[in-house]
C-alpha cells in the first residue's frame, strides 16, 4: 500500500509539474506571435502551440487529475482543505480550457489575430497554483463550522422525486 501511494504520488507530482509549466509557458508562447509574421514563423508557432497543447499539456492534466483522484481514495483524505484544493483545481481546469480556446482562435484567424496579453493568464495560473500548494502542503485545519448549518444536518423534507427503489 505504502509503495502504491509513493508511486502514484510521484506520478501526480511529475504530471502536475508539466501541466503547471505548460499553463505558464503556453500563454507566453502565444504572445510571441506577431500579426505580420511570415508564413514560416506563423506555421512554426502554430504547430508548436497546437501540438504542445494537445500532445503535452492536456495529457499531463489528465494524468495529474487521474493520479490525484486515485490518491484521494488511497489516502482517504476527504477533509475540508482537500475540497478547497479541488475548488481551486477547477479554476486551473477553466484556465486550461481558456488557453486551448486561444490556441484554436489563433489558427482560425490565420495570421491576422492580435495575440491576447499573457500577463492576466500567467498571474491567474501562478495565483491558483500557489494557493493549491499552500493548502496541500500546509493541510490547514479548516473545520466544518464555516459551512452553514442547513448543509450539515438532515432537513427531514420529502425528495422532489420518487424514492429510488431499494
Ligand atoms: C483533481 C485534481 C487533484 C486531485 C484529486 C488531487 C489529490 C491529491 C491527493 C489525494 C494527494 C495526497 C495528499 C496526502 O497524501 O495527504 C495529493 C498530493 C499532492 N498534490 Fe494533488 N490533487 C489534484 C491536483 C493537484 C494540483 C493541480 C496540484 C498543484 C498545483 C497538486 C499538488 C499536490 C502536491 C504538491 C501533493 C503532495 C503533498 C504531500 O504529499 O504532502 N495537486 N493530491
Automatic annotation (TrEMBL):
Note how many cofactor molecules are bound and how.
Binds 1 heme b (iron(II)-protoporphyrin IX) group per subunit.
Source organism, top-level taxon = Bacteria
Query: Mind telling me which InterPro entries this protein's record contains?
Result: HemJ-like (IPR005265)
Please provide, alphabetically and separated by semicolons, the GO molecular function terms listed in this UniProt record.
metal ion binding; protoporphyrinogen oxidase activity
Q: What's the protein here called?
A: Protoporphyrinogen IX oxidase
Provide the protein's localization. Answer: Cell membrane
Membrane-spanning ranges? 12-31, 52-74, 86-107, 119-138
Q: Name one GO cellular component term.
A: plasma membrane
The cofactors named for this UniProt entry are: heme b
- The keyword DNA-binding appears for this protein: no
Q: Name one Pfam family in it.
A: UPF0093
Pathway it works in: Porphyrin-containing compound metabolism; protoporphyrin-IX biosynthesis; protoporphyrin-IX from protoporphyrinogen-IX: step 1/1
**Function of the molecule:** Catalyzes the oxidation of protoporphyrinogen IX to protoporphyrin IX.
Predominant location category: membrane
* Broad enzyme group: oxidoreductase
Q: Which UniProt keywords apply?
A: Cell membrane, Heme, Iron, Membrane, Metal-binding, Oxidoreductase, Transmembrane, Transmembrane helix
Might you give the EC number(s) for this enzyme? 1.3.99.-
Instruction: Please tell me whether the keyword Heme is annotated for this protein.
Output: yes
The reaction(s) annotated as catalysed by this protein in its Swiss-Prot or TrEMBL entry are: protoporphyrinogen IX + 3 A = protoporphyrin IX + 3 AH2
List the source organism. Answer: Sphingomonas dokdonensis
BP GO terms, sorted: protoporphyrinogen IX biosynthetic process
Q: How does it sit in the membrane?
A: Multi-pass membrane protein
Provide the family line.
Belongs to the HemJ family.
